[in-house]
Amino acid sequence: MGESTMVEPPLTVRVAFAHAALQHVADRHGVDVLHIKGPALDPQIVRPGRTSTDADIVVRPSHLRHFITALREAGWVQQEHFRSASSFEHSAAFRHPEWGLADVHRLIPGFTVPREQAFDRLWTDRHDATIAGRACPVPSLPAQVLIIALHAARSPGSGRADSDVEHSWGAADNDLRDEVKGLVTALGAEVPFSVVTGTLDEHRDDPQYLIWKVASRGGTRLEEWRARIKAARTPAAKTVLVLRAPLVNVDHLRMVRGRPVTWWEIVVEFFARPARGLGEWWKAQRS
Question: What is residue 113's three-state secondary structure?
Answer without folding.
Answer: coil
